[in-house]
Design brief:
Elements lengths: L2 H17 L4 E5 L11 H12 L10 E4 L15 H8 L2 E6 L8 H14 L1 H4 L2 E8 L1 H4 L2 H6 L8 H15 L9 E6 H4 L5 H6 L2 E6 L14 H15 L5 E6 L15 H16 L5 E3 L40 H4 L4 H10 L1 H16 L1 H5 L16 H12 L4 H13 L1
Parallel strand pairs: 1-2, 1-8, 2-3, 3-4, 4-5, 5-6, 6-7
Helix pairs in contact: 1-11, 1-14, 2-3, 11-12, 11-15, 17-18
The chain binds 2-acetamido-2-deoxy-beta-D-glucopyranose (NAG) (3 copies).
The site of one 2-acetamido-2-deoxy-beta-D-glucopyranose has 10 residues, from loops.
Length: 413
């Protein structure tokens, strides 16, 4: 909006980019499309495909998980993704499930068990940990509108979990791993959540322009909408590194306002958001390699059946259709003139707008989910899975692994 804001946003965006290695990976829930548990072989197949995708514009050798607990386990058995990661040399962004619970003891216990079982083969591969996933979204105005029964966690609860985690691993190998939290972009711009930002080493943002109804969310505008939300997040988090923890466009499913799912639109989104803005520039966990939620009509997978031949050509073009959002950041270094650029650049104008207006019209909010469960659920606003997930979470709220497992189904669409 104002040049000073633009420049500050641009500067912290550069800082964000520079302060973390630019990991590339996908998201991976604890369960398969039939709601059964994933085991080591399932994770290994995913990780192997991710690293061998034809035409990939980088090495997709990282993965984001939603829980440390193996699905079906009644105790603190570590998720078998850890062994699969060790055997495929995959970097791990760990997740601690934080909604619908008053403690993270089982998550911590599972992680400690993994550390004592696998040692540095495990800990050396852990690049980050997220305490929670979209918990703030689920208790936001939009989140509750989409799912009044959605289980989330308040900012003070998240902060206490973050502190619990740090205390549990202080002085150990995992004590050096940067701690973050993943949420929708308009959760980060909501000032009431600031204490969470202050408690973190990095911030994870989930962004789905597809679901930004009422904002001109056709594929041709997706890059612009993405940039607005990303820039608003960067501007809100005071220089903390921003990782993009979920983003993608469905290849099949219902239209969402002006957004149309198709393979060619999924490819366009890959190019205009992934290639132009994210890959090898910002730590990125794409949504997604495979679909796992049978209830969701929208499918986001980039491959069928874990084939290494994707549904569309993954190679990156050299020119893009999205107006240059990064003009303001690249010109930051040249001070004076850059402010003018910043003001006129589409994304910088909207940064201000979104920052002030987010809560009410947030598209990403609509996207997510609700299930009181893990992950994004991008689709759940109209999705029967939303309700199913909420019911599941209630039913199994005593069993965190099951809760997380049920959530992941919804999350993975
Ligand atoms: C394992 O992955 C890490 C991080 O990508 C890399 O630095 C290392 O060289 C890899 N090791 C092997 C044996 O491939
Ligand atoms: C802002 O965050 C608070 C705390 O998480 C939440 O209660 C509130 O509903 C949020 N505001 C909006 C507009 O969603
Ligand atoms: C998917 O892969 C599995 C295992 O390789 C195979 O049994 C199945 O036939 C494949 N399904 C399709 C639709 O290609």
């Amino acid at each position: 909006m104002r040049p000073t804001n633009t420049l500050a946003a641009a500067a912290s965006m550069l800082a964000a980019g520079a302060s973390a290695q630019n990991y590339l990976g996908f998201n991976s829930g604890a369960t398969l499309a039939d709601r059964s548990a994933k085991f080591k072989a399932d994770f290994k197949a995913e990780f192997t495909t991710a690293q061998n995708l034809e035409g990939a514009p980088g090495n997709f050798n990282a993965v984001r998980l939603y829980t440390n607990i193996q699905a079906y386990a009644q105790d603190d058995t570590p998720i078998e993704a850890f062994e699969a990661a060790i055997e495929t040399n995959t970097s791990l962004l760990l997740g601690v499930w934080a909604s619908g619970t008053d403690n993270i003891d089982r998550e911590i216990a599972a992680l400690k068990r993994a550390v004592s079982t696998f040692g540095t083969k495990f800990t050396d591969r852990v690049i980050g940990i997220s305490i929670g996933s979209e918990d703030l979204y689920r208790i936001s105005v939009t989140g509750l509108k989409n799912d009044p029964k959605g289980l989330g966690a308040s900012p003070d609860v998240l902060v206490s979990f973050i502190n619990d985690f740090k205390k549990a691993f202080s002085g150990t190998a995992l004590g050096k791993v940067p701690v973050g939290h993943v949420d929708t972009w308009d959760s980060w711009t909501n000032g009431t959540n600031k204490a969470v930002i202050d408690a973190l080493d990095w911030v994870g943002v989930d962004e789905y322009p597809y679901y930004e109804n009422g904002k001109g969310n056709d594929i041709g505008n997706a890059g612009v909408l993405f940039d607005k939300a990303f820039d608003a997040t960067v501007a809100a988090v005071g220089g903390k590194p921003v990782w993009v923890t979920e983003t993608g466009w469905p290849y099949v499913g219902e239209n969402w306002d002006k957004a149309v799912p198709s393979v060619s639109n999924a490819q366009k989104y890959w190019q205009e958001v992934g290639c132009r803005k994210l890959f090898n520039k910002v730590p990125t966990f794409w949504y997604n390699l495979r679909d796992s939620n049978p209830d969701n009509t929208m499918k986001f997978a980039i491959t069928k059946n874990l084939s290494t031949k994707p549904m569309f050509d993954l190679t990156c073009p050299t020119t893009f259709d999205t107006p240059s959002a990064s003009a303001s950041s690249t010109s930051t270094a040249t001070a004076g003139s850059s402010s003018a650029t910043g003001v006129s650049a589409p994304s910088s104008t909207s940064t201000g707008t979104t920052t002030t207006g987010t809560g009410t019209d947030s598209g990403t909010g609509t996207t997510s989910g609700s299930t009181g469960t893990t992950g994004t659920t991008t689709s759940s606003a109209t999705n029967p899975a939303k309700t199913a997930g909420a019911e599941l979470s209630k039913t199994f709220s005593a069993g965190l692994a099951l809760l997380a497992g049920a959530g992941v189904v919804v999350a993975l669409l």
